[in-house]
C-alpha cells in the first residue's frame, strides 16, 4: 500500500513529463507559425533558369506542396541553422494544358492536342514560416540546385493577425476548446 | 414585420421590407451589410462579419448570418494531412447558388470509383467570395495551338491557397463565358468548369487532368507525332487483341485490355469505357485501373 502511494504519483509525474517533452517540445521546435506564409515570387526563363523577384512574409495559409508533380517539378527544401531539413515539398515548373471536355461530340483537334506544356514564366510559392529557418533551396528533378535563398532576413509582419477562429479551418494554433466553430469533428 | 410593441424608432424601411433595429440586408457579392440602426437609419457596414467570415441573408428572417469564408463540402477539414481542393466562384449571384454547384461537383466525385480511401485524402472547400473574376478570354495561344478559354491561373491559385489552404483549385463559372458545348477545361493544378455541365462527370474528368495528370481518351481525330508522350492512361503499343493487355500494362494490370484510340488515333486505352473518354449523357463515371493506380494513387501518396 505504501509502495503504491509512492509509485502512483511518480508514474503520473513521469507520464506528464514524457508527454511534455515527447510531444509538445519537439513540435515547438520545428512548428511553422500559424497563418503566416513565406511568399516567394520567382521568374522562370524558357530555359528553366530561376531568379528571385520578391521575398516576403504575409498573413496567409501555405501549401504543404505534397502533391506529386507528373509534369516536371522543383524540389523545395527549407533548412535550419544546423543544416537540418525542416520542410520538403514539390512545386510544378510547367503550365500543362489539356483539351476541353465537351458534353456533346468532341471536336477534331488539328494540332497540339494533349498534353501541351510550357515553362511557367512566374512561380509563386506560399511556404510555411519557420522562425528558425535559414535557407531555402530549390532543385530540379535531377537534384541540381537551381536557387538558394537566405531566409534569415525575413521577419513576421508586426500586424500579423493570429485569430482566424470562425473562418472554417481548424488552424494549428486552434483546438476544439479554443475554437469549437472550426475544430468540431465533422 | 413591425410588431405592435415596436416603435418607429426601432425600425427601418428597406424597399418593401420593414427591418427591426439590428437586422440588415447582406450584399453577398460585396460582403457588405446595410444594418438597421432604428429611426429609419440604414448604415452600410463593410466586412461586418469580421476576418475570415462572410455575411449571408436568410430566407425567413432579416437577421444577418455570419459564416466561415471556407466552407467544407467534403472531407474532415484537416488541412495539414489532406489534399485541399478549393472551389472558387465566378459570376454567381448568391452563396446558395454557388454552394449548390459545389455540392453537385462533390456528388459527381462520389459517383466515381475513386472510393472512400482516395476521396478520404481530399478536402473540398467552397470559398465564399462572389466578387472575384478569373476569366481572361477565348482562344488563348498555347505552345502548340490555342486553348478555347483561359483564366488567370496565378490569381486563382494564390487566392485559393492563401485563403483556404488550397493545394489545387476549381473555378466554377455560372455560364457567363460559355463556349459551345465545352463543359470544362483544365490545366495542371487548375480547372475551369461551367455550371451547365455539373450534371455530367465534368468535375471528376477535369480533376483527372488537373490533379491526377491523366490524358483524354476520346478521339482527337489525328495520330500522334513521333515522340509524343502517351501519358499515364494511354499506351503507345497495341496487343494481339482488344481483350489482351497492352504491353505497357501486361505485368501490372492483367485485367485490362488494349483498345485502339486514346486521344490520338495511334495510341491505345486500357478499357473500352472510362471517365476520361467522351462526355455527355451516357458518359462513364469510372476511372480505369492504370488511371486509379498510376494517376490518383501516385498523386495522393503523400497524404493520409
Query: Which CATH-level-2 architecture of the largest domain in chain A?
Result: Sandwich
Note the beta-strand portion of chain A. 25-35%
**Overall domain count of chain B:** 3
Cα-atom radius of gyration of chain B: 24 Å
Helix content range of chain B: 10-25%
CATH class of the largest domain in chain B: Alpha Beta
Determine the N-to-C terminus distance of chain A: 46 Å
Q: Can you tell me the residue ranges of chain B where pLDDT is under 50 for at least 5 consecutive residues?
A: none
The overall pLDDT average of chain A reads 85
Order of helices and strands of chain A: HEEEEEEEEEEH
What characteristic shape of chain A results from the CA principal axes?
extended
CATH topology of the largest domain in chain A: Immunoglobulin-like
Q: What is the H/E string of chain B?
A: EEEEEEEEEHHEEEHEEEHEEH
Poorly predicted runs of chain A are 22-27
The description of the largest β-sheet of chain A is: 4 strands, antiparallel
Descriptive notes:
Chain A has helices at 2-29, 180-183, and strands at residues 37-44, 50-58, 73-80, 85-92, 94-97, 101-102, 116-119, 122-128, 133-139, 145-150. The relative contact order of chain A is 0.20. Chain A is an alpha+beta fold and 186 residues long. Chain A has three domains: 1-30; 32-155, Immunoglobulin-like; 158-186, no CATH class. Chain A is 17% helix and 34% strand. Chain B is of the alpha+beta class. Chain B folds into three domains: 8-68, no CATH class; 70-211, Collagenase (Catalytic Domain); 214-282, no CATH class. Helices cover 18% and strands 30% of the residues of chain B. Chain B is built from five helices and 17 strands. Chain B has helices at residues 95-111, 115-119, 153-164, 202-210, 289-299; strands at residues 11-14, 17-20, 24-27, 32-36, 42-46, 53-56, 65-68, 70-74, 83-90, 122-127, 135-142, 145-151, 168-173, 182-187, 190-194, 259-262, 264-269. Chain B has a six-stranded mixed sheet, sandwiched between helices. A three-stranded antiparallel sheet of chain B has the order 3-4-5, with no helix packed on it. In chain B, β11 (135-142) and β12 form a beta hairpin. The longest helix of chain B has 17 residues, at 95-111. Chain B is elongated and about 85 Å long. The chains are: A alpha+beta (186), B alpha+beta (304). The interface between A and B is large, with 53 and 79 residues.
Amino acid at each position: 500500500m505504501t509502495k503504491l502511494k509512492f509509485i502512483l504519483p511518480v508514474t503520473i509525474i513521469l507520464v506528464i513529463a514524457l508527454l511534455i517533452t515527447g510531444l509538445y517540445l519537439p513540435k515547438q521546435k520545428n512548428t511553422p507559425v500559424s497563418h503566416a506564409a513565406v511568399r516567394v515570387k520567382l521568374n522562370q526563363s524558357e530555359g528553366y533558369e530561376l531568379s528571385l523577384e520578391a521575398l516576403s512574409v504575409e498573413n496567409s495559409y501555405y501549401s504543404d506542396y505534397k502533391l506529386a508533380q507528373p509534369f516536371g517539378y522543383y524540389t523545395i527544401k527549407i533548412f535550419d541553422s544546423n543544416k537540418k531539413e525542416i520542410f520538403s515539398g514539390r512545386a510544378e515548373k510547367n503550365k500543362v494544358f489539356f483539351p476541353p471536355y465537351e458534353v456533346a461530340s468532341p471536336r477534331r483537334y488539328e494540332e497540339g492536342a494533349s498534353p501541351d506544356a510550357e515553362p511557367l514564366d512566374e512561380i509563386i510559392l506560399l511556404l510555411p514560416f519557420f522562425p528558425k529557418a535559414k535557407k531555402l533551396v530549390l532543385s530540379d528533378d535531377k537534384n541540381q540546385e537551381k536557387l538558394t535563398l537566405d531566409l534569415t532576413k525575413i521577419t513576421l509582419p508586426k500586424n500579423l493577425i493570429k485569430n482566424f477562429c470562425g473562418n472554417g479551418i481548424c488552424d494549428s494554433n486552434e483546438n476544439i476548446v479554443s475554437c469549437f466553430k472550426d475544430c468540431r469533428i465533422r | 414585420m413591425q410588431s405592435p410593441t415596436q416603435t418607429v424608432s426601432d425600425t427601418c424601411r428597406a424597399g418593401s421590407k420593414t427591418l427591426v433595429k439590428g437586422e440588415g440586408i447582406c450584399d453577398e457579392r460585396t460582403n457588405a451589410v446595410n444594418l438597421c440602426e432604428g429611426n429609419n437609419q440604414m448604415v452600410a457596414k463593410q466586412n461586418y462579419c469580421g476576418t475570415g467570415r462572410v455575411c449571408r441573408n436568410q430566407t425567413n428572417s432579416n437577421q444577418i448570418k455570419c459564416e466561415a469564408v471556407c466552407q467544407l463540402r467534403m472531407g474532415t477539414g484537416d488541412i495539414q494531412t489532406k489534399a485541399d481542393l478549393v472551389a472558387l466562384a465566378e459570376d454567381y449571384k448568391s452563396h446558395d447558388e454557388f454552394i449548390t454547384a459545389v455540392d453537385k461537383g462533390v456528388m459527381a466525385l462520389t459517383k466515381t470509383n475513386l472510393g472512400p480511401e482516395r476521396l478520404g485524402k481530399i478536402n473540398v472547400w467552397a470559398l465564399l467570395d462572389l466578387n472575384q473574376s478569373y476569366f481572361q478570354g477565348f482562344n488563348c495561344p498555347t505552345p502548340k495551338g490555342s486553348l478555347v478559354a483561359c483564366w488567370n491561373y496565378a490569381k486563382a491559385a494564390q487566392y485559393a491557397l492563401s485563403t483556404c489552404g488550397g493545394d489545387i483549385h476549381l473555378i466554377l463559372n455560372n455560364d457567363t463565358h460559355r463556349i459551345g458545348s465545352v463543359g470544362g477545361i483544365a490545366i495542371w493544378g487548375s480547372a475551369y468548369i461551367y455550371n451547365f455541365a455539373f450534371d455530367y462527370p465534368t468535375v471528376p474528368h477535369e480533376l483527372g487532368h488537373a490533379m491526377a495528370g491523366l490524358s483524354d481518351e476520346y478521339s482527337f481525330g489525328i495520330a500522334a507525332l513521333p515522340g509524343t508522350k502517351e501519358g499515364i492512361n494511354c499506351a503507345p503499343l497495341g496487343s494481339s487483341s482488344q481483350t489482351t493487355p497492352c504491353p505497357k500494362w501486361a505485368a501490372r494490370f492483367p485485367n485490362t485490355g488494349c483498345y485502339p484510340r486514346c486521344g490520338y488515333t495511334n495510341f491505345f486505352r486500357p478499357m473500352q469505357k472510362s471517365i476520361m473518354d467522351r462526355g455527355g449523357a451516357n458518359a462513364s463515371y469510372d476511372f480505369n485501373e492504370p488511371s486509379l493506380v498510376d494517376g490518383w494513387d501516385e498523386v495522393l501518396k503523400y497524404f493520409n
